[in-house]
Amino acid sequence: MENITSLSDKRREKQINYERSILKDLTLTQLKTKAYECFGVFMHSGKFDYSAIEDGCIDFSIEAYLLGASYSRFGFFGETMQTVNARSRREEKLLVDQLFDYMLIWGNPGENDFKNESIYYACEFLIHLWWSEGFEKGEKRLKLRLH
Predict the structure, then answer these.
(1) What is the pLDDT of residue 39?
(2) Which residue from 15, 49, 68, 78 has the fewest beta carbons nearer than 10 Å?
(3) Could you tell me the CA-to-CA distances from 69 to 28, 88, 96, 147 in Å, in that order?
(4) Are 130 and 68 in contact (CB under 8 A)?
(5) What is the pTM of this model?
(6) Burial environment of residue 106 by CB neighbours within 10 A (0 to 12, 13 to 18, 19 or more)
């Protein structure tokens, strides 16, 4: 007797395989380096525990990378990166807000509004950086027919 699989199961399996293949281009060293570039300056202030937030930065960076890679098909079909980014702006903003909340909880930045604003811009920069990187890698894989 044959197993009956649903269309949603097949789609999910295809998505997982795509994510595995796209993540092969990404290294942990790259993720840690970019996270340190964005948030290392806050560590030197003395009140920011970088070791507590590094794992979260890596997780959110991977999510942003995968989001950009999933939207790269629009770039492959002729849209510019800016128009595709506008298309995914809501999901990217959600990642930025979640990373910022994570920073406020685990990073212990205090009540300084100026510092909190700086942290938000650093979160925004990190997410957009990895979104762009994922977009470019995904588009390259599509052009090379590696999808």
Answers:
(1) 84
(2) 78
(3) 17, 11, 17, 11
(4) yes
(5) 0.87
(6) middle
